[in-house]
């Protein structure tokens, strides 16, 4: 039977990007790590790595072994953490990825509170609007805000926040163009939209539905750009309340047809099954679920 430690040393070498970095991380001689990985290759009768003085690349067999070895390493970490959790607060590094609006409007004010509450945790937040693969890129948690259901995946999903999307516009724009009194009035107004090829707002209020098509004045697939365009008086836009709230409070924009809702956005925490069981990761997820308004809690 192969030595489990050899698989873990191999996984650490891959994650750290080389034998020297893994040795420093583990507090072992580089020669020990290199020798044990070589012995693992010999026992498996398969080359796992193509390595030179400048490169460190997994073979096809190496990629497959790495996935299993990394899973074993996570299970070992979980076992250690489960015991430590009985006598200590959560500790270690938790890597989070989130989109720019989610980071700005949901996490920026909450993560410092988490750091104060759990000082032994080190939070690493990566902010990007591109799709991030948690497993391949080594993240513990992803926060994703979405209008429709998320695609099926093997990830654990926990909705933690749900809020309405409302229409807003600058007072100067409404003074010049008139304030809509009903959804059908929006057809004569300039719209600031996320998709120029689908310029339709679907509104709902008290069980009623209405679809309106404003004139496309400006489009952007980023919420802050739409908010700034609305503040500049270019037209009416639809935004989650958390994004428009400060501008509404300052009088830079005002609600349009406030009794009507232009959709709903849900924020969901995603974790992998294995890493989602780690005490540090669970502590962060529980904190986020408690600090953001729970799904369905209203506005």
Characterise this structure.
The protein is of the alpha/beta class and 299 residues long. It folds into three domains: 4-84, Arc Repressor Mutant, subunit A (Orthogonal Bundle), CATH 1.10.10.10; 92-155 and 269-291, 3-Layer(aba) Sandwich (D-Maltodextrin-Binding Protein, domain 2), CATH 3.40.190; 163-264, D-Maltodextrin-Binding Protein, domain 2 (3-Layer(aba) Sandwich), CATH 3.40.190. 39% of the residues lie in helices and 25% in strands. It is built from eleven helices and 13 strands. Strands 3, 4, 5, 6, 7, 10, 11, 12 and 13 form a nine-stranded mixed sheet that branches. A two-stranded antiparallel ribbon has the order 1-2. A hairpin with a 2-residue loop joins β8 and β9 (208-212). The longest helix is centred in the first third of the chain and has 25 residues, at 60-84. It is elongated, with a radius of gyration of 25 Å. Residues 294-299 have low confidence and may be disordered.
**Which outline best applies?**
elongated
Strand content: 25-35%
- Helix percentage range: 25-40%
Total strand segments: 13
What is the count of helical runs? Answer: 11
The first-to-last residue Cα distance is 58 Å
Structural class: alpha/beta
Q: Name the CATH architecture of the largest domain.
A: 3-Layer(aba) Sandwich
The assembly state of the depicted protein chains is single chain
């Amino acid at each position: 039977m192969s030595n489990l430690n050899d698989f873990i040393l191999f996984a650490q070498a891959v994650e750290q990007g080389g034998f020297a970095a893994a040795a420093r991380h583990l507090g072992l001689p580089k020669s020990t790590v290199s020798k044990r990985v070589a012995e693992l290759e010999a026992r498996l009768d398969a080359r796992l790595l193509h390595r030179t003085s400048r490169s460190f690349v997994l073979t096809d067999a190496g990629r497959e072994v790495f996935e299993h070895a990394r899973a074993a390493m996570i299970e070992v970490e979980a076992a250690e953490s489960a015991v430590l959790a009985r006598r200590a607060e959560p500790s270690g590094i938790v890597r989070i990825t989130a989109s720019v609006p989610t980071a700005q409007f949901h996490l920026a004010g909450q993560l410092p509170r988490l750091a104060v509450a759990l000082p032994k945790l080190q939070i690493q937040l990566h902010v990007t609007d591109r799709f991030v693969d948690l497993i391949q890129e080594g993240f513990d948690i992803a926060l994703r805000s979405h209008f429709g259901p998320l695609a099926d995946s093997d990830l654990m999903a926990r909705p933690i926040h749900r809020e309405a999307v409302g229409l807003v516009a600058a007072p100067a724009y409404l003074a010049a163009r008139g304030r809509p009194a009903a959804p059908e009035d929006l057809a004569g107004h300039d719209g600031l939209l996320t998709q120029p090829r689908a310029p339709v707002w679907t509104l709902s209020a008290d069980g009623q539905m209405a679809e309106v098509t404003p004139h496309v004045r400006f489009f952007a697939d980023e919420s802050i750009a739409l908010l700034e365009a609305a503040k500049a008086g270019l037209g009416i836009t639809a935004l989650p309340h958390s994004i428009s709230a400060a501008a509404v409070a300052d009088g830079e924009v005002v609600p349009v047809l406030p009794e009507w809702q232009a959709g709903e956005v849900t924020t969901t925490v995603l974790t992998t099954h294995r890493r989602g069981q780690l005490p540090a990761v669970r502590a962060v997820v529980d904190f986020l679920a408690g600090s953001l308004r729970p799904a369905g809690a209203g506005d």
